[in-house]
């Protein structure tokens, strides 16, 4: 699966801004606007509050007493209260926007990932996708935090302080501030590059370690079968060690940058206070001016440092968002053509010279052609790797053919919408996939909105109803992760019930009774013949005894159709099918070439 390259630099910023903007509804935009307004108010209040303190100190220095002093003290205390109240409101509004954005992006992520074609998922690990989402959401939060809570309000505060200093003709202090700002700019520019590089490596290692952990958890049974816990622990420990080392390099870069900024701050503060003290001794400043300059020395350095930290935070957030943007840039499954049609036939299925390859140069199907007449049953047989499962994936449009056409009632599948196509087909896979939910949910998943009576009828047809009633919680019994609480045969019967509930136009059975005992298998096959007698049935078979009744048998070898016919016709030909059937009857192992 080839992904579109993730954008970088300004292009990446535009992509991310477009993504965030597209997901930000009216609620989010309103809350972010309120956050910006409150942040601006806090910044202005913070910049003007020292003026009250200056006036108060000057009154005390000149021995002035009176009613104005309590008033000034009250105003100064009020300004601090207002700053904190507005700050708390700002945090609340930002939290509302952040949580809604988290919800909307997560929803958009899942919808997009589920819309991606099979080729994408074949090359992805579940844990890696999960960690990519986690990192992407963290990056989005950092982006909003630094842009809304830091860049804008700090810039406003810086401008307000500069205006105050100019109004009091403290140009020398502005020059010192400008020199400090230039030094900070150099340090942060250098530090941002180092931090970004370290963060990218750490993020990649974090994704890989999460993927390794998830892979082990999903396959814990095979680990136990081979007593491989020590090996798995060692391998996972190596990934954790690489992740830890990567993060330590990241924090080391941050530490170096912090030490450099602290040195600049101390030097700037010392120079500012020394100059202010000299001017105070010379009579060029009042005591209130000294307090004002000292306060602004802290207040200007703080926003400068915050801007630098925000720049690093933004670069780090872009690193976190890179992998998410790669996934969002992946092309989803192809949709129907601009002029979709309505199916009116009885379910005729045609494969016409279909070829497909998972990888370039490795063809899985080669010019495969066969037709399944409406209401008939066609069986696909062949050795492992012959291409039987690929036929199913093509039929469901999980894959697209490289050449040839697949038609349903004479209509190319590309002219059907995916919901329209997939609602007409029910699949009973050999490996049953179940949700970690109740039996009722897993059976009812075949047809949304089914009544309890319909679910129970499907369970009876799948010889499952009595077993479910024997459970303490009945249909409300949870089946566990991937249905682990059920046996293989029980999982398979749930899958069969799910398909029976759907009542599809086409039914695909991938060795649907391989995990069942003979008695249950015969009972379910009788139900199959009764319920699907009006459906077009495609059977992928390994045990040839289960497809003797098929109207047609298609034999695949190395991706090609080598034989077609009924069971009796193929036995008379005495080819590959006859050899395989004879071997299964006699118990010998004969592989199709």
Descriptive report:
With 593 residues, the chain is an alpha/beta fold. It has three domains: 9-329, ABC transporter type 1, transmembrane domain (ABC transporter transmembrane region fold, Up-down Bundle); 343-424 and 506-521 and 532-593, P-loop containing nucleotide triphosphate hydrolases (Rossmann fold, 3-Layer(aba) Sandwich); 428-503, P-loop containing nucleotide triphosphate hydrolases (Rossmann fold). It contains 18 helices and ten strands. The chain has helices at 9-23, 26-61, 68-115, 118-122, 126-167, 171-218, 220-225, 229-282, 287-329, 388-395, 418-423, 439-444, 452-461, 465-469, 488-502, 518-531, 567-573, 576-586, and strands spanning 349-359, 362-372, 377-382, 403-408, 411-412, 425-428, 506-510, 536-540, 552-557, 560-565. The strands form two sheets. Strands 6-7-8-3-9-10 form a six-stranded mixed β-sheet, sandwiched between helices. α2 (26-61) packs parallel to α5 (126-167) and α6 (171-218) runs parallel beside α9. The model is unreliable at 1-9 and 588-593 (pLDDT under 50).
